Amino acid sequence: MTGIDSDDFPGGAPFTSGLSSDRGGKPVSTKQGFLARPEKARLERDPGMPASTWRLRSDAWEYLKYAIKRLVMSGGDFSMIAADGEVWRSLRSLKTIELYWGGFGQRYVEEIAELLSDGEFDKAHDMITKAVNRLRGTTVPDTIDEELTEEERAEQRDRQDPRPRFEVLIVDETTEGGRDELHSDLLRLRSPGDQFIYDYVIVPTADDAVVAALTNPNLLACVIRPGFTDRTREVLSRDLRNAVALAHEGTTSSPTGPMSPLNSVRRVLRLADTLAGLRPELDLYLMAGAHIESLAGALTHRFRRVFRREDQFELHLSLLRRVQHLWDTPFFAAIQEHARRPAGVFHALPVSRGGSVVGSKWISDFVDFYGLNLLLAETSATSGELDSLLAPVRTLKKAQSLAARAFGAKRTYFVTNGTSTANKIVHQAIVAPGEVVMVDRNCHKSHHHALMLTGARTAYLEAYPLNDFAFYGAVPLSRIKQLLLDYGAAGRLDEVRMITLTNCTFDGIVYDPERVMAECLAIKPDLVFLWDEAWFAFARFHPVTRKRTAMVAAERLDETLRTNSHDAAYREQRKRLFDPVTGEPAPDEVWLNETLLAPPDATIRVYATQSTHKTLTALRQGSMIHVYDQEFGSGAEEAFHEAYMTHTSTSPNYQILASLDLGRRQVEMEGFALVQKQLDLAVSLASAVARHPLLKKTFRVLTAKDLIPAEYRETTRSMPLRDGLATFWNAWTKDEFVVDPSRITVEITGTGVDGDTFKHEYLMDRYGIQVNKTSRNTVLFMTNIGTSRSAVAYLIEVLVKLAEKFTDPYKSNRSDASGEVADVMPSLPDFSAFAPEYAAEVPAEDPAAQLPDGDLRSAYYAGLRQSSVEYVLPHELRRRVEVGEAPVSAGFVTPYPPGFPVLVPGQVITAEVLDFMSALDTREIHGYEARLGYRVILPEVAGEAEAE
Questions:
Q1: E strands along 204-338, which residues?
Q2: How many CB atoms sit inside 10 A of residue 811's CB?
Q3: Which one, of 834, 828, 712, 838, lies nearest residue 460 by Cα?
Q4: Residue 188 has what pLDDT?
Q5: Among 153, 157, 167, which residue's Cα sits nearest to residue 199?
Q6: Cα–Cα distance between 689 and 701 in angstroms, integer?
Q7: pLDDT single digits (tens) 484-531
């Protein structure tokens, strides 16, 4: 269970203290108030309900089904069930959980407990089976009991309904009778023609509403009725109580005093703000009484609509209509319609409609494997409802607009040839030749190539190295600020155009984009930011991870800059940063040691590129560009469109576009559920490796303490999510860097083989385990929204088998492995420097003030002319370096792993670079040929470039 360790429970049992016990240690009968905690039990240590309930809920129902079925088959009596403490603990857990989920409710659990106490095990088992079938998604109809009332039969039919189902949160301190009336009204409102059905989740307090939003991913809307109270009466875990408190931070203070109309409105506004901050995808509705007209005008920006209590049917229609908007996939629907419609094909695509395939005897297996719909949907027509990607006006334009809504962008653009192309589009749209771009040196190679293509001057930023594991972390904010200050001191700050950073990195290091952008804008208010979020698209759909996405950061920063409190704080800070008499800026140390505030008139210009196909549902190469640019309507849009036209194919793959449309629908409808499950399974995997007696001898899960130096972390927990939602939330709010918990980096030094060998020869070849990345001594296991509990269990099983093999001297063949790990890991080399002929000019008055930017483009093209380069073998190159020469790289040299260019065109080759490359001993190095050696620019050519 997420956020729970065995020592959180007496005896280490996962459901311990869920139920109380009498003085003799026996479970208290339901007839004795078993589910109502006695006073003695309130003093016991009780974990309450964990923040992630999907697995606890499922496991508790499944265990009850197993235990009661066993009891029924054995003909047991109450003494048998009374002795099974796990049954009662599960019931206690479910009694709390079901308050926050639709479909059954607390009274359903209480009724099961009563039946068990009365020895009616068959009836209890039937009720439990219905709950399990609902959770499993089973739609096999149960027998309708004719002895039930019409309302009870209607509820039973409702539980069997196969239509897509969502849940609506109602916040109202109503009675049990009022809740029954609401559910009865809902059943009467249902129509067989409705595309969807929904359940109510009715909670009495603001705290309960926040708990429901944090734990129940099935919620798509919330109806707030004035009159609720603040504090919950449920027994919650300390972690969840802390998470509720964190959720309320930043909203208006809770009203005190009697339930006056003014206090009631403030309470409603506070809750609405809290829920919007947690789950912006939730539609908020207000169900008011008196003065509804004045409330509607005042609350429009918080609520989609305001209703009177008697307008139940209008609310019902609004809920269904809104979910229909989320469900809508305009481009996919157009593709479906195109495939169904007969057509004559007279364009350049023989495979269209299956024309060149269906009648062929030689490639009929194409259709057998992929299906006819793939071919029916193929066309090169870019008009009508299918639209044109380069100039969309109908379905594609609407699909991209819906994606912008889902991801919190002002504009979103689909890309069908990957985020590599998306990055090049943004670079070309923003940067002109000669402008400076500050970029993380170990970013994806597409950024290096984009900088070369645009002719920008490249100023590399150094991430902190993780030498023990042969990969980099992220770039500390202090280094970014220092470089901006250096450009300012040199009088060149106006040349700095854009900052490009990877959020999150391949290895899971995540920035705080809002803080980075705010502090950089404090130094240069018109900076543009490109956040490469190729591996972070999923983060938008979890209440905690969402905060560190570029689009949310841009929106929050935009809102902050427009507040009076920020304006006052900014003016006060500037008094400290500038001498009041001379106007001279304070020393760099002052700027570096202070959390800088962006000027209120700063321009927010933020772009994010995401590989939708990497972490969400989309076909390979399906990516998106998200835009939050306040200058987009005044010139920037035209430049973007030109760049988009430059790099986008005139024959885009319509299947990829349709998958992006569908992937957007999925995450709006169930993104929170999928991401919550993904993160929870990742924590389970990490915990299993860390605690298994055999696995922990051979493997080690790297945590925040391994991957982030202490100076960049305020919190001290090594795996925050494992410690609970509140700890996770706290770390992601305060720390400069955090680790994406969906990525599990495992150190494999104990196996005696290197990462590449472990990946290919053991994981993939022997067991079919596929992984993306390894380093010299680590393997990265990534969970995603498609990861299942079975897949995690299989991986653990495989790791146990491998651990047994590597620890058994009679079974292990490590001594024969070609990839045996060296005793000493190679140190990661910093970027040396651009050669003088491609570097920035050295200030005559201060040679030590050399700035790091260089001309990649000139060096790249110099390296392409065969008459200008030579190939030099490593030993000869080392000799030249030792005698004082400074060889210059003619191209990009990128070893896999670690997967970033160790050398770029125009870079001076140093002994540190050669040491790293010689020790790396990797199988795949782009830009280097072992037979010929390194490609080096001839000295005379470099000298000519310097003279120019």
A1: 219-224, 283-288, 305-308
A2: 9
A3: 834
A4: 85
A5: 167
A6: 7
A7: 999 999 999 999 999 999 999 999 999 999 999 999 999 999 999 999
CB 416 within 8 Å of CB 653: yes
pLDDT, one tens digit per residue, over 670-705 is: 999 999 999 999 999 999 999 999 999 999 999 999
pLDDT for 38 equals 40
- Interval 312-332 mean pLDDT: 93
Q: Are 235 and 46 in contact (CB under 8 A)?
A: yes
Residue 134: burial class (beta carbons within 10 Å; 0-12, 13-18, 19+): middle
Q: Is the pLDDT of residue 809 over 70?
A: no
Residues 6+ apart with CB under 8 A from 890: 859, 862, 863, 868, 869, 905, 935, 936, 937
pTM for the model stands at 0.90
Residue pair 527/495 in contact (Cβ under 8 Å)? The answer is: no
Q: What is the DSSP letter of 224?
A: E
Counting beta carbons within 10 angstroms of the beta carbon of residue 693, is it exposed (0 to 12), middle (13 to 18) or buried (19 or more)?
Answer: exposed
If we measure between CA atoms, which residue out of 485, 520, 474, 478 comes closest to residue 499? 520
Alpha helices, DSSP H, located in 490-563 = 513-523, 550-561
Contact 808, 800 (CB under 8 A): no
404: nearest Cα among 560, 604, 628: 628
Q: How far apart are CA 282 and CA 221, in angstroms?
A: 5
Helix/strand/coil (H/E/C) assignment for every residue in 575-629? HHHECCCCCCECCHHHHHHCCCCCCCCCCCEEEEEECHHHHCCCCCCCEEEEEEE
Tokens of 97: 């959980």
Tokens of 311: 């307008």
The DSSP output letter for 75 is: T
Give the span between the Cα atoms of 216 and 274, in whole angstroms: 16
Counting every residue written for the chain, the total comes to 948
